[in-house]
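S2.1 Query sequence (3-sulfinopropanoyl-CoA desulfinase)
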Amino acid sequence: MLEREDYEEFRKAVRRLAETKIQPYAADVDEKKRFPEEALAAFKELQLVALPFDERVGGQSGDVLAQSICLEEIARVCATSSLTLMVIWAGLGPIASFGSPQLIEEVMKPAINGDTVASICLTEIHGGSDVWGARTRAQYQDGQWVINGQKRYITNASRSDWYSVLARTGEDSFGVFAVHKSDPGLSFGKLESKMGVRGSPTADVIFEDCRVEDYRLLGDSKEGRQYITDSLAYTRPLIGAQALGIAQGALDAAIKYVKEREVFGQQVARFQMIRGTIADLATEIEAARQLLYRSCQAVENKEPEARTLASMAKLFCSNVAMKVATESVQLHGGAGYLTDFPVERMMRDAKITQIYEGTSEIQKLIVAKAMLSD
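Output structure tokens follow.
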């Protein structure tokens, strides 16, 4: 773990980058539903794509807390951009951990330089949160893997260069495969029109006799379940970090507004009910931050309760994000309902954090199971 001062210096650097190179385009990205290319370019300045990966593949070996701080600061100004970076990490993660030397060379080296967009393909049409109900199959034929199936709601779909795909390799076994956008048999469904994070493309990824070379299998063809289970324990705090960033950004915007706005001859921030609301929201954000950072520590150290704490953090942070964003719109009054102010966008963006990477209900089941087990 780094020293506290190192984390704070890193936070300041990411915040400067986010405010100068990402925030100016956030509203336009949302309004035009376009991929945040400016953010992708900005990531290169601090080599943020390289942050979570081991030095052996050219990464920076940044721990889970550093990754969370990074996503928190980006989401504070643009949730779409934080999602873009997070999913690139998620898509590249299995390749970095289990990819063959040939695949590491082919994928990770360009990716570390920030020139690669990636996706992870888990969810299916009929499955939702039931990842292990997946019907996408991969069969080994003549030295290649042939993949058939359809993945739903895939982030960065059609924009990504590489897709890490979970597929059934046996009756009760799974493998994970690296599929390139140019591979024959890979296609995409229509781009979805969404409530929030609208600059992040979402679509089905379709595999019709999609053939990939044997070296594109990641690790063991029967160990995909374990690979993905481990990955979810690691990524759930990152969703919590994104949610926390949205909450902080919404509160920052609300505080700025109530200090500038005057009603009945005085600053809105002077009204007692307004001050009480601000105090409550700030307290909940700080409580969420402490739980999130504790979960990062547990995941990093592979503590027995890491999975439970990750679910707690994802659950609590996403609920706080939704509450703070909604209250921040209210603190703006009628102005909060206008697209001229960022809280309107933040309220829409916050909702998805309660849904993806395991719904709030799934997180509650994980926590309850841990609490009630003998």
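The chain has a mean pLDDT of 95. Residues 224-260 form the longest helix (37 residues).
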